[in-house]
Every structure is written in structure tokens, then in C-alpha cells.
Amino acid sequence: MTTRPVVAITDPLPEDFLGDLEHAADLVCAPADAPGVLADPIVARAAAVEGLLCTLEDRIDGAVLDRFPRLRVVSTLSVGFDHIDLAACRARGIAVGHTPGVLTDATADLAMALLLACARRIPEGIETVRRGRWGRWRPARNLGIELRGKTLGIVGLGKIGRAVARRARAFGMEVVAVRRTPGPDPADDARIVDLDTLVTRSHVVSLHVPLTADTRRMVDAAFLSRMRPGAVLVNTARGAVVDTNALVEVLARGHLGGAALDVTDPEPLPPDHPLLRLPGVVVTPHVGSATRTTRRNMARLAAANLLAGLAGRPLPHPVPGAPG
Ligand code: DGY
Fold first, then answer.
1. What atom of ligand 1 comes closest to residue 236's alpha carbon?
2. How far is the CA of 309 from the centre of ligand 1 (A)?
């Protein structure tokens, strides 16, 4: 009888998301009410764990990896991998996989939803109705920003950036973009410009870069102050790409028209955080990929990475720069 490899899952997934992994591995799962890589049931089997299915909430560094002496594959249920110390994985020969491609549309949809919510002041309108303050229709009340004819600046023209560009063009926006690495010809999606042009010309700036040493706090006080007066910042990438204190400051002095954020720094954002008291700020709790279809597809890719890695094959979706 062959023994199945032990795979630790740091946050429970719906059973039907796991596919073949359920039969191919002996699964040990953190409880729903106490998720995490160091949850008791996982720690109890740590010496046997060969595969890890983690989320962006799990910081996977050298100290954590040392708890799992037989670990061969880390598979994160996310496209972002800034929570994983790749050098520590490389030093231990641990393969690292992620879930690119399958959350492009869900995240792009949310970026547009946030932009529209901010531009048309939707949360404020909902609050008005809920509080019984609807009142008389007034010509000069509830006025927002129209998207047609405005310029959207996309920082990071990868898959998600391009998907947002296409949606924005359907709304009649002109789209400019900066990209960090040469990619496919953006064709009609966007016009490539330099960062300064993008920041100073755009009515809306939408962030689509991964969090790296280069992008951490790239949206700082200088960046925000150079944005057009009344412009809107949209962030569905990573909270730490933006200097939160600087954002609070520029919003408080009325320089920006608003901020639409699915990711924040810190995350979760405490309910008494100054950002939440500012007008024109719309915040959702990191739900860019939160559709059933997308999460199921992410789980499929994460399971495929584990199955391949545990069988000694190259991962189908390796993290760039990590051993695959
Ligand atoms: C990711 O995958 O990195 C998103 O932030 C969450 O789905």
C-alpha cells in the first residue's frame, strides 16, 4: 500500500473545490474558526507535511518553513505571492506555485465597480436612503463624476490592468498606462506613457502592480500631490503599494476627489481608521477574486500545483523566480 503525502490546508475550502487532491493526498486542515499555517491540527502533523495550500494571510518565511522539515511544495491560493519568502523556499528546494490568470475578470470587474461607486457616490446614496433622508429631487444634489471622456491611468499593464483598460474604454474613457516589463502590444487597450504623464493627466489612477521592494509605497505623498485635483485613486492590487498616511493627508486637504480601495495598509482596516471618516472613500474587504467561479478556479490551479510538485513534476503555475 502506498502512503499518500500529507498536505496541510490553512483555511478550509468547499469540498468540491479540491478535485483530485482529496484522493491523492492525506489532507490536514486548519479549523474554520482558527485558520492559519500554525493552526493546531497542522502543527500536530508538521513533521509529515509535504505540501502546503496556503492563502495570502499566511506569512511563509524561514521560521515557518523550518517547522515543516519534509515540505516540498508551497501552493498559494492567490496570484500575489508577497507573503512568501522566495529566497527561503529556494534555499530549501521548496517549489512555489500560485494562481495567475483565473482572477483577471473578477478583479477587473471589481475595479470598475469601485470606480463607479466612488464616481457616482453610491455608498453615500445608499446611506441617504437607509437613513430616511431621501427627500426632494434637487438639481444640485448628489452630483458625481461622469466617466465618458475622462482619462484612466493604469499603473501596471499586466492581465488585470489590460482587462480594466478594456472595460474603461467601453465606458468611453481614454486609457493611458505604464508597464514595468515589456508585454504584448497593448493594441487598442491603452496608450503607453511615462509615469509622470500618467499621474499628472489622469482623472482616475488604477493600480495593478504586484507588491515588491520597488512598488512598496510607490504611491507616496509626492505621487498623490502630483495627481490632478479632484482625481480618484483605485487600488485592487496590494494595500502597501500606497502610503496610507499620505493618502489620508491628501484626501483630508481635499486635493483628491476620492479613493476606491479593495486593499489597504493595514489590512483589515480598523473601523475607526481615519480613512473611513473621509468623504469620497469607498473601501471593500479585499474581495477582488471573491466570486464562486473564480475561487473554484483558483483552487483548481492550487491543487494542480500541489499534485505536480508532490509527484516530482514541474509546477504548472510556478511563481516567477521560485524553484518550480
Ligand atoms: C490575489 O490572488 O493575490 C488576490 O489579492 C486575492 O485573490
1. 5
2. 22
